[in-house]
């Protein structure tokens, strides 16, 4: 794909463009003051016209820090895990010697 210098990019339309980056990169996500900062950043994202593109980018590159597309790093890890997780299937039951009761051993012999 040809990437022209004049071609627009989703980041050109991000409403966080020009905002204080510290708002989107709290030093933690659990302390009350940091939760307030995270909520403020997410409020900016909530009104952004390129929120979906931002989140898709952060998921694709595995962005480990900051608020991207209205999500925290933990929320993105969860989204990646659930999206990439293979379909679950029941595993066969494996009986290890000593696990079964004496009557089960007797009937198996």
TrEMBL record:
<dbReference type="GO" id="GO:0003677">
    <property type="term" value="F:DNA binding"/>
</dbReference>
<protein>
    <recommendedName>
        <fullName>Transcriptional regulator WhiB</fullName>
    </recommendedName>
</protein>
<feature type="binding site">
    <location>
        <position position="48"/>
    </location>
    <ligand>
        <name>[4Fe-4S] cluster</name>
    </ligand>
</feature>
<comment type="similarity">
    <text>Belongs to the WhiB family.</text>
</comment>
<keyword id="KW-0963">Cytoplasm</keyword>
<dbReference type="InterPro" id="IPR034768">
    <property type="entry name" value="4FE4S_WBL"/>
</dbReference>
<keyword id="KW-0238">DNA-binding</keyword>
<feature type="binding site">
    <location>
        <position position="16"/>
    </location>
    <ligand>
        <name>[4Fe-4S] cluster</name>
    </ligand>
</feature>
<keyword id="KW-0004">4Fe-4S</keyword>
<dbReference type="GO" id="GO:0045454">
    <property type="term" value="P:cell redox homeostasis"/>
</dbReference>
<keyword id="KW-0804">Transcription</keyword>
<dbReference type="Pfam" id="PF02467">
    <property type="entry name" value="Whib"/>
</dbReference>
<dbReference type="GO" id="GO:0005737">
    <property type="term" value="C:cytoplasm"/>
</dbReference>
<feature type="binding site">
    <location>
        <position position="45"/>
    </location>
    <ligand>
        <name>[4Fe-4S] cluster</name>
    </ligand>
</feature>
<dbReference type="GO" id="GO:0046872">
    <property type="term" value="F:metal ion binding"/>
</dbReference>
<dbReference type="GO" id="GO:0045892">
    <property type="term" value="P:negative regulation of DNA-templated transcription"/>
</dbReference>
<keyword id="KW-0805">Transcription regulation</keyword>
<dbReference type="GO" id="GO:0035731">
    <property type="term" value="F:dinitrosyl-iron complex binding"/>
</dbReference>
<keyword id="KW-0408">Iron</keyword>
<dbReference type="GO" id="GO:0047134">
    <property type="term" value="F:protein-disulfide reductase [NAD(P)H] activity"/>
</dbReference>
<keyword id="KW-0479">Metal-binding</keyword>
<feature type="domain" description="4Fe-4S Wbl-type">
    <location>
        <begin position="15"/>
        <end position="78"/>
    </location>
</feature>
<comment type="function">
    <text>Acts as a transcriptional regulator. Probably redox-responsive. The apo- but not holo-form probably binds DNA.</text>
</comment>
<dbReference type="GO" id="GO:0051539">
    <property type="term" value="F:4 iron, 4 sulfur cluster binding"/>
</dbReference>
<keyword id="KW-0411">Iron-sulfur</keyword>
<feature type="binding site">
    <location>
        <position position="54"/>
    </location>
    <ligand>
        <name>[4Fe-4S] cluster</name>
    </ligand>
</feature>
<dbReference type="InterPro" id="IPR003482">
    <property type="entry name" value="Whib"/>
</dbReference>
<keyword id="KW-1015">Disulfide bond</keyword>
């Amino acid at each position: 794909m040809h990437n022209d210098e004049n071609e627009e990019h989703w980041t050109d339309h991000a409403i966080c463009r020009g905002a204080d980056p510290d708002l989107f990169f709290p030093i933690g996500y659990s302390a009350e003051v940091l939760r307030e900062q995270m909520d403020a950043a997410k409020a900016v994202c909530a009104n952004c016209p390129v929120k979906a593109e931002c989140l898709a980018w952060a998921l694709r590159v595995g962005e480990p820090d900051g608020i991207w597309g209205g999500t925290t790093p933990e929320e993105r890890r969860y989204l990646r895990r659930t999206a990439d997780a293979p379909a679950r299937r029941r595993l066969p039951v494996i009986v290890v010697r000593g696990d079964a009761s004496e009557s089960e051993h007797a009937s198996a012999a």
